[in-house]
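Entry for the shared binder. Reason: the reviewer on the internal report wants the predicted structure included alongside the sequence.
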Amino acid sequence: MENQTEVEPPLPIPERVFAFGEEPVGVRVTPYHKPFAIKKILRALEDDEVEVLRRSPFGKLVEIAEKPTFSGRFGRYIISRQLKVKKKHEAWFLFAGNPIRFSLQEFALVTGLNCGQYPADAKKKAKKHINEKPYWCELFGTLKEVPVNSVIRMLKKRSVTGKETRLKYALLALLASVVLPTTHNPRISHDHAEKIKDLEGFLAFPWGRLSFDLLMSSIKERNEVSLSQNTIALKGFVLALQLVMIEAVPALTEVVHEGGSSGSESESADDEDVPDEERKGKRSISPGHARETDCAGKVMW
């Protein structure tokens, strides 16, 4: 007899956090990063400086700046369709009848950030800096706190002219406001400022893994009660979740809202220097179209 290959039955889909039809109807997911954060930083740089950034491990952020901004309503819709999985570093979401994984692998794919292993001597190097003169003083003088908006203004007005220093300012601003945001009013981290003294070592550090861990813990720490709140604030690069969903379901971008209402990231005083024409041109995916696509269950995977 010829050998017959046994076909294993498909694995069952894990139980949903909220049963079908019982999903909470909260308004939105609120990310700490702002819709124009990347563009504001890029606009403050010279063309050649943007090219240097584009060639760095943060280069894909330049491309991401042109993609649809995060939709808070869509984020809420997806979070409400989370599946119960025990793995600490994975989240799964049910869309159009199919489970979509959000893990470090997908995060690295859509962000382009370095998501490698943490260096074994990271803690030793941190201790070594204690006995050295703080590099912070070389970057920011006697200032004890430096908001990201202040850094952007200094770059835009060319208050600092050294090319390497300007690159360091831009990188620190991206970390605080895009990659590792934990507040709506981001400030430059003293620890990150010390790390960037060694620019090569700074660029080699797996900031992507740190960003993913921050976002994943922000998602995983929430139980059914906290997920039922009207508005959910998430730390980290929340836009990555939407980017993964778009990669898995390209049909989500078939309908976009122009002008940035419809539950996209709310604008604030932090965006006051963004041109009106760019505000009006802000694009975000349509939560309504996403719901229709999900309910139809017919998408190109």
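Summary line for the report: The longest strand covers residues 90-95.
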